[in-house]
Amino acid sequence: MPEAAHFAFVDAKTATIYQAALRLAATHIWTAR
Questions:
Q1: What angle do CA 3, 9, 12 make, to 5 degrees?
Q2: 2 HSE (CA, 13 A, CB side)
Q3: CA-based angle 12:20:6, to the nearest 5?
Q4: How far is the C-alpha of 7 from the C-alpha of 30, rounded, in Å?
Q5: Gap between the Cα atoms of 19 and 29, Å rounded
Q6: pLDDT of 6 strictly over 70
């Protein structure tokens, strides 16, 4: 199923971006303290 593969790809991409943003936010908070 191409749709399932595409959804999995987008989901993985979103998870990566989310993790990067979370790490960036954590670093910012840690630095601000």
A1: 140
A2: 0
A3: 15
A4: 34
A5: 15
A6: yes
Q: Which residues of 1-33 are buried (b: 16+ CB within 10 A; e: fewer)?
A: eeeeeeeeeeeeeeeeeeeeeeeeeeeeeeeee
Rounded CA separation 6/27 (Å): 31
pTM, to two decimals: 0.60
Over the stretch 7-32, which tens digit does the pLDDT of each residue have? 888 899 999 999 999 999 999 998 88
Rounded Cα distance between 18 and 2, Å, is 24
